[in-house]
Amino acid sequence: MRVLTLGNLGLTDTSPLQQEVLAELREIVGEGNVLAAYEELLAYECDGFALHHHLPGAIVLPANREEVARVIEVARRHRLPIVPRGAGTGLSGGALPRFGGLVLSLTRMKSILELDFENRQAVVQPGVINLEVSRAAAPAGYYFAPDPSSQMVSTIGGNLAENAGGPHCLKYGTTTNHVAALEVVLPSGKIIELGSRASDCPGYDLVGVFTGSEGTLGVVTRAVLKLSRLPQSAKTLLAAFETLKDACDAVSSIIACGIIPAALEMMDRRMIGTVEAASNAGLPTNVDAVLIIELDGLAAALPRQADRVASLCLQRGCKELRVAKSEEERQAIWKSRKEAFGTVGRMTRDLYLHDAVVPRNRLSDVVSRIYECADRAGVPLASLAHAGDGNLHPILLFDTRKEGEEERIMSLVHEMLKICVDAGGTLSGEHGIGSEKCEYMGMLFSAADLTAMQRLRAAFNPDELCNPGKILPARFHSYC
Amino acid sequence: MAATILEIDGVDVSGEETPESPQELARIMKEVHDAGKPMAAVGSGTKLHLGNPLRAACVAMRTRRLSGIVEYEPDNLTVSVLAGTPLRELQETLRAHNQFLPLDPPLAERATLGGIVACNSSGPLRFRYGTVRDMLIGIGIVHADGTATKAGGKLVKNVSGYDMCKLYAGSLGTLGIFSDLTFKVQPRSDAVATVMLGYASLRQAFEATQALLRADLAPDTLEALSGAAFAQLTGDAPVAPWILLVRFGESDCAVRWQVDSLRGIASASGGTIANALGTKESEEFWQRAASARESCDSDEPLLVKCSVMYKSAPDTGQFMADLGDRLQARTLLYCHCGSYILYGRYEWPQGACSAEALLREIAALRRYCAAAGGHAVVEKIRSDVKRSLDVWGYEGQAIDLMRRIKNEFDPNGLLNPGRFVGGI
Question: How many separate domains does chain A show?
Fold first, then answer.
């Protein structure tokens, strides 16, 4: 795949790290836990956002917080950027080593340290995979609510860094709503505890600001997560619509009538076709849109809610409505949805995945304008959306081998973001700004707004040692 | 509320400003800043007792004219208000669309949203809906030098940049003064019911809460009040040493199912049903109940907030009761059984308690809570005693970081100087 770069990324070549530095790192984490061969570095040159890439100087895999702190100490001394990384599934270049330096892979720190059901908390290391927390808690009737589609592989550290969402955050909130305390190593090398396991830690909400900070404020080495009680019951409905507009209107009317489903997802015709070809989940392929609507909670409450949702869908022109009759059928529908993004590769050589969010009462208008915009440009679009949140994932499909294609696509990306922002929306709902959307931040925020963010960063990370060149536009970075 | 404010928690104010718009707030703050004067935001003044004493006389920046709903979009479940808007007024507007903001801090009939967010005030509903940090999605703030910034938006999901809303919520006016706030709101439940259960001990009440959660009940609130606190709230004689108040909000039949299930759990856990309230009665009851810990009838009470872990919560309650006995105080205890926060209110109807004894007992309580994995905040105390302690009692490792943040945003220390943790 050819690499698309935004105008002023300022990528530079990385020279191999000096032997002396590598020796120091090996001393700390052990011989096998420093990777510096070219072919090893290649695997870390990008994350799930493959349009930007840059080689790191070395990969370091620490086993505990002391090693993390000592590695950071080495990085400080040699003025090497540190880029924390989990499973590398991020979709905005958050784990991209823009200026080389050390990629700090936390995947060896993968223990669930404690499950405390009385306090509804799990204490985990950053390399623990999201789904493993829920699996471990399930026998006692609990789970970790954030469910990004990457949850089979993505790590808690990455989820924290990106403030990961997922289909069910419509009802249950994103990662930030499910964290009690964090142990972090600051860019100064100091290990400190933010927040507390007991409620309402006095002082600024540092757990709140650290979550979603994309690895720019330090490195999480332990997290106290809040567990939720598994819902007593769930009902999943599949509603098919002849037009996207009808589906969007149905979403808006469900939200407006006071029902907050656990999840409310939308797929367009092209997406449905690919997903169905890959999964055989029984999605209707002859319509322009389907909604996957999940209601959960008390069994006694669900039938009435389901009736209301069904009648709202029918009022909005729903052509086919199916309620999953068994747990297997329900799981099959969700499996198809969670794997949807993975199937896009069947349709295209290159892609660009949007993550904008718009107010739920503007969905229909914004979605139609986005499609018009793609149609005008002649660029095919496939679309997924966490529609209940207003979080849209239109995917532009293209081939960068075509002359002038990257400029055309990037200008289309910009145009679509502008449509969302003008409708009161935002750039990213769950993937983060990373290296990808830094330069778009000015569409949303004034220089003063961004300066406030820069001040927050400066309190934690004054020299931009940690994950430099992320979130804020170039002029707010000392590295750029 | 309209009266001029003369002092903030025992410290005279040096002036008063009442801006009428975010622009005027910014202009006045710049002037005050340029004159080198410290300033403190004041909403309706329901929480002026919170925090350490001011280090200097401040210009009181009143937000009472900075009031009103800016934009309400019922079909997006979001609402934006000016910071001085009273919560009550907002709830009335939302109610017309069968929605509400699930915040029930004390004195909600007067408290402003700016004050509630600055103090991170919460009440029993936090069990189901969380706290300010879980519902504040956008903010306009004016920093010390008069620079206005915004963060977040009107979106329920947003990771565009640092989550500044989290930084400002609960920052007690030390990083800026809010001009406007945007919240996600919730649909109101079709039906509400409250069941009151009498228990012989706090431990039994706690065990009952675990049992009802294991049985898949999903209450709005799980509150336990000591017999005396309950009696004071209801005007009735104490019916049991501890009363567990469980509120359910759902569809009719889901509420009924939960109330019925709870009856079974109650008898199995040694509880006796003292009372049960329907939808309308519940709402009236909880309005009073949420304010109970701060509706004081004595002049100089002590109000402490202890947060601990589950296992230690019942013993912490006992420690707090014993502390009252040692101080010869009338003791009222209010416990969020879902988040393990215990409020103790101590009153001395006849005569005062010695400062020395108060300080000694607070220190003992803090040691106790620290050993129980938590902390104790002194929310209200006589001003002479307040000068001898840090009311926040934050012993954590992040204090330097918090100071650096304060210094980045307010390098001259002009905003609410001294009131926050560690004298920030």
Answer: 5
Residue that is last in its domain, among A168, A202, A229:
A229
Do A201 and A287 sit in the same domain of this protein? no
Decide: A341 and A152 in contact? Cβ < 8 Å: no
DSSP characters over B133-186: HHHEEEEEEE-TTS-EEEEE-S-SS--SS--HHHHHTT-TTSS-EEEEEEEE-E
Q: B308: distance to nearest CA of chain A, Å?
A: 5
Instruction: Give the CA distances from residue A377 to residues A4, A312, A415, B147, B332, in Å, rounded to whole numbers and listed in that order.
Output: 18, 34, 11, 41, 69
- Please list every residue in chain A whose beta carbon sits closer than 8 Å to the beta carbon of residue B374: 196-198
**DSSP-derived 3-state class of residue A278:** helix
Chain B residues touching A452 at Cβ < 8 A = 143, 149, 151, 164, 409
Q: For this complex, say whether ipTM is above 0.90.
A: yes
For residue A184, the chain B residue with the least C-alpha distance is B398
**B108-155 pLDDT per residue, tens:** 999 999 999 999 999 999 999 999 999 999 999 999 999 999 999 999
Q: Best of A117, A213, A226, A455 to disrupt the B interface by mutation (most B CBs within 10 Å)?
A: A455
Percent of chain B with pLDDT over 70: 99
Phi, psi of B172 (to 5 degrees): 55, 40
Of A199, A203, A256, the CB nearest to B74: A256
pLDDT at A480: 54
* Cβ pair B134:A177 closer than 8 A: yes
Count how many Cα atoms sit within 13 Å of the Cα of residue B405 in the half-sphere of its side chain. Answer: 26
Question: What pTM, to 2 d.p., does this model score?
Answer: 0.96
Q: What is the mean pLDDT of residues B239-258?
A: 96
What pLDDT, on the 0 to 100 scale, is given for residue A6? 30
CATH architecture of B191-292: 2-Layer Sandwich (3.30)
Q: Which listed CATH number (3.10.450.50, 3.30.465.10, 3.20.20.70, 1.20.120.790) goes with B69-187?
A: 3.30.465.10
CATH architecture of B296-386: 2-Layer Sandwich (3.30)
pLDDT, tens digit, for every residue of A335-371?
A: 899 889 889 988 899 999 999 999 999 999 999 999 9
Mean pLDDT of B324-332: 96
Q: How far is A40 from chain B (nearest CA, A)?
A: 31
Which segment of A36-40, A466-470, B209-213, B294-298 scores lowest on mean pLDDT?
A: B294-298
Statement: residue B391 has pLDDT above 70: yes
CB A97 within 8 A of CB A434: no
CA distance A90 to chain B (A): 13
Domain that holds residue A278: 232-325
In a domain, A408, yes or no: yes
Strands of B177-184's sheet, edge to edge? Answer: B69-73, B78-82, B177-184, B136-142, B148-152
Nearest to A185 by CA among A25, A59, A67: A67
Report the distance separating Cα B310 and Cα A195, nearest Å: 17
Assess if residue A3 is contained within a domain: no
pLDDT at position B296 is 65
Task: State which residues of chain A have pLDDT below 50.
Answer: 1-14
Tokens (6 digits) for A254: 């469900």
* B155 vs A169, A177, A425: nearest CB: A425
For A212, the closest of B73, B163, B374 (CB atoms) is B163
Quick check: A452 and B151 CB within 8 A? yes
